[in-house]
Amino acid sequence: MCGIVGYVGDERKTKSVLIEGIKRLEYRGYDSAGVALLEAETEEPVVIRKVGRVDNLSNACKKALKEGFHAVNGIAHTRWATHGRVTDENAHPHRSSDGKIILAHNGVIENYESIRKFLTTKRYTFSSETDTEVLANLIAYHYQKEPESENGLSRFAKSVRKTFNHVEGTYGVAVICTDYPDRLVGARKGSPLILGVGKDECLLASDVSAVIANTNNVVYLNDGELVEITKDGYHISNWDYTQIEPVIHTVDWDIEDAEKSGFDHYMLKEIFEQPKSLENAMRGRFSEDASTAKFGGLNIDVSQLRQMDRILLLACGTAWHAALVIEYLIEKYARIPVEVEYASEFRYRNAPLDKNTLVGVISQSGETLDTLEALREAKRKGYHTMAITNGVGSSIARECHGGIYQHAGPEIGVASTKAFTSQVLIGAMFALYLARLRDMSYGEGKSIVAELKKVPDLVHQSLSEAEKIKEIAKRYSQYPDFLFLGRQSLFPIALEGALKLKEISYIHAEGYPAAEMKHGPIALVCEDCPSVFIVESDEIQNKVVANMQEVKARGGKVICIQSEDCTIPDGLADEVITLPKVHSMIAPLLATIPMQLLSYHIAIERDCDVDKPRNLAKSVTVE
Ligand code: G6P
Q1: Distance from C-alpha of 77 to C-alpha of 211, rounded to nearest angstrom
Q2: Same domain for 443 and 481?
Q3: Which of 2, 202, 400, 529 is catalytic?
């Protein structure tokens, strides 16, 4: 949450690189946006901040800056408010009261009150309610005391380093000092920051999507690292000022992947991208000879894995739902007990864990702070950890012992779609892998590999229901409440369906195991509360049909998402969405597709901003 960008390079490009950059980071927060630019002619700073979306800021810049305005460097920010209301004054960047330092921050400064008190005694003043403003003033305070450097880090960079010796909390920052127009300083702890290395230009950003239009070469900074950038190069150092040799990664996707490509919304594009993202999740990960899945980065040998007699999966939000599906799959096919817990609860609960427990975390971004801290807690206790993440080079990817990358490409829509299905698919492959290390036969493994390989085509086929779902959405968009009901591995899909609808259309929705309905939620059933059932033609199909009857008997509407061979009595469901009959390992993944389309089209009918739902942010880097 909160996105930051910094740029030093071609003066003519500075403003547009920054505005375009934070536009791509808007998924991290969109309460307000701001930019600080050191004007090329005067080297004086111009700071423009506006409540609302980046478009507001862009319009304000057009009005405020004269034709041909160029800037030697600049920083920009898009905010998800934590401390302080959503106002222009609280928008970043923030400037020290002596005017020397300007800073954009992502994270939370926990000891800001004591720093503020201290700085007030030193006659620094404050004009916002944010925790961030103390950073600008504290850097300014250290800067005026710091002697000019003879070699190594500049006086400016040293004052940033000194500041963070006194700060508790999390931060990714991009900082300007008006005395150093040729450079910017960045630093991180607990919030992501990457360095983009272009030709005659360098960038700082919260993630790759903000720099990809300029360069594919990036350095993922580690916690505690500080970087000083100029257009000709960069210098990375750690806490004790030791220079760090960077590892430059080449990003394997480009700007097109982060565009809407003709779709009205990122969410819709990402729903339709699923055949490709699922293909990518599987690529090179099957061993035909051994009839199993294979993973290159688990960093755990087979005998160690064979000894694991328990798996604990930790995640938040949609990724937590993926973990619940994976629990069903691993327990069913590999017969290993799995527990799923909210990462935020695990961290403080001090749960007793068995010795041979594998701890897995699941996170699209790889930056969710609750999940990252849960991972750290598990590592601290000595457990072997693994991650399923889409965030290449993310904090979680770097800190876990091993893991599996999703390769789903950038997911920009705040409501997760393609990342969820790819997590579920990878979970299914992991269940197969574990099962083949235990009791699953070669023959069964072979048939499951064949089934999994069909997934992209099956998803493609399911997407063809989109027009029909759009019509259903029109009929149901004005209902105030929804129930989502499914059983076994389809229960987490009911939870995910309810979450998706809540997130993007602000309709109250609840997901339950269908049988649980009679123990409470049935009280909600009435003409105004439709129930979405997800049902397969399995041994408990009739029980779910009985639950549908109970809903109908109470005047509730039934929307039924069913596999094509289900035998639901004629007329019981008001709406029917049919899916191909598939192997039970794949059924939850496939049932997700109509859920995504239903919530998308309902949200569109209600005129909601599906890509940027109110109050949400995609990558939540605060607790
Ligand atoms: C936020 C997002 C959710 C997401 C969750 C976990 O709450 O709004 O859509 O599922 O974070 O994100 P992660 O990146 O860890 O999967």
Answers
A1: 14
A2: no
A3: 2
